[in-house]
Amino acid sequence: MLVDGRLYELQRLGSWRSIHDVKPRTVIIYLHGCDGHDLDTNAVLWRRLARLGYLTVMPDSFARPGRLSVCGHQKAPDYAATRSEL
Questions:
Q1: Measured in whole angstroms, how far is the alpha carbon of residue 46 from the centre of its chain?
Q2: DSSP code of 9?
Q3: 15-34 confidence digits (pLDDT tens)
């Protein structure tokens, strides 16, 4: 991930580590379901992806204040409502 002209690798729990080479890398956007990210269960997968050279970004939509929930028994909001939230 390029930030302020420097290349960084996103690490577990949001810490950063500098990457010394600048070769192009594949980024995986790892999305969660209604139960969120289970850091302990998925740690083996995330470490394996890092060893293979992938940058993995795991956004936590639950951390956004005022977000619309699409989980549970209610009907999911329509596309336009969800899009406007982003």
A1: 11
A2: E
A3: 455 666 667 778 888 777 77
Give the residue from 56, 68, 60 showing the smallest Cα distance to 8: 56
Q: Read off the amino acid at residue 47.
A: R
- The CA distance from 71 to 65, in Å, is 16
Residue ranges per structural domain of the chain: 2-85
pLDDT, the chain, mean: 67
Q: Which residues contact 81 (CB under 8 A, 6 or more apart)?
A: 68
What is the pTM for the complete model shown?
A: 0.47
Q: How far apart are CA 65 and CA 49, in angstroms?
A: 30
Predicted confidence (pLDDT) per residue in 30-51, tens digit: 777 777 767 677 777 777 887 8
The Cα 61–Cα 3 span in angstroms is 22
Q: Which residue has the tokens 């619309």?
A: 68
CA 23 to CA 71: how far, in whole Å?
39
